[in-house]
TrEMBL record:
Domain ABC transporter intervals: 5-232
Protein name per the record: ATPase component (CcmA)
InterPro entries, sorted: AAA+_ATPase, ABC_transporter-like_ATP-bd, ABC_transporter-like_CS, P-loop_NTPase
SUPFAM superfamilies reported for this sequence: P-loop containing nucleoside triphosphate hydrolases (SSF52540)
Keywords for this protein: ATP-binding, Nucleotide-binding
Tagged with keyword Amino-acid biosynthesis: no
Keyword Protease: no
Species of origin: Eupransor demetentiae
Cited Pfam families: ABC_tran
Domain of life according to the entry: Bacteria
Length: 242
């Protein structure tokens, strides 16, 4: 079966700093992959290379069997970057409408689609307010709603739940699980280790390499610890000894 994301021996340096050292990473339909690693490990860089925002120095990086950027794939992809790229002097509704048009969504039923995605992130009440007055968490929620527009087959979410309250975080994860069950593929990075328990597979990026890549349960067994947070800490301690 074709992968939704396929990275093979991808290397990427910034100047003399080798950020990614021949990493392999795949994501399939019906799967949530959690990419975790210490701050500065290269998680966003890996995503940027996969999506063609950055160019790999070597190796293969494909989305749906094609090299990015590729305009044809825009409608199949929901991407939420680490920093919000929103128009502050527009309302949430106007932002959603703008990005929906960019993605080529049909005008018919657009209002319903905007309502659907804003309800998932509990932003319905703030839909007609200007983004300039939004809190950080509200901006994250709006960015997530934008990524969900059009129910894309592939979702790439860089730290989607930063600044989001626990109850809504739970609601968002329920939605991600529902999408996964329907056959979507989801790549998510997170610093919240209890969220890493909610993914199907964890890829642990440290020292420029994927040092572990398995289900949370299997990793906990392999490392002989009860949680992914403990796996992370143990792996980090081992990495520092090297
Ligand atoms: N455009 C760039 N130019 C130079 N260095 C960069 C660039 N982008 C990233 N880096 C460097 O590459 C390394 C990896 O950064 P990246 O943002 O991918 O890490 P991350 O794992 O996503 O971190 P965090 O969890 O803090 O978001 C960092 O040392 C960063 O400073």
């Amino acid at each position: 079966m074709a992968y939704m994301i396929e990275m093979e021996k991808v290397a990427k340096s910034f100047g003399k700093q080798k950020v990614l050292k021949d990493i392999d990473l795949t994501l399939s339909r019906h799967e949530i992959l959690g990419l975790i690693g210490p701050s500065g490990a290269g998680k966003s860089t890996a995503i940027n290379v996969a999506l063609g925002v950055d160019q790999a120095d070597s190796g293969k990086a494909e989305v749906l069997g094609k090299q990015m950027p590729n305009r044809e794939l825009l409608g199949d992809l929901g991407y939420m970057a680490q920093s919000d790229a929103l128009y502050e002097d527009l309302t949430a509704y106007e932002n959603l409408k703008f990005f929906a048009e960019m993605k080529g969504l049909a005008k018919d039923g657009l209002d319903d689609e905007i309502k659907r995605v804003s309800n998932i992130v509990n932003l319905g009440d703030a839909l007609y307010k200007y983004v300039a007055g939004f809190s950080g968490g509200m901006k994250r929620r709006l960015s997530l709603a934008i990524a969900l527009l059009g129910n894309p087959e592939l979702l790439v979410l860089d730290e989607p739940t930063v600044g989001i309250d626990p109850a809504l975080r739970r609601q968002i994860w329920a939605e991600l699980h529902k999408m996964r069950d329907e056959g979507h593929a989801i790549l998510v990075t997170t610093h919240v280790m209890d969220e890493a328990e909610l993914v199907d597979r964890v890829a642990l990026l440290m020292g420029g390499k994927i040092i572990a890549n398995d289900s949370p349960k299997k990793l906990e067994e392999d490392y002989g610890v009860p949680t992914i947070e403990d796996v992370f800490l143990k792996a980090e301690a081992e990495e520092e000894k090297k």
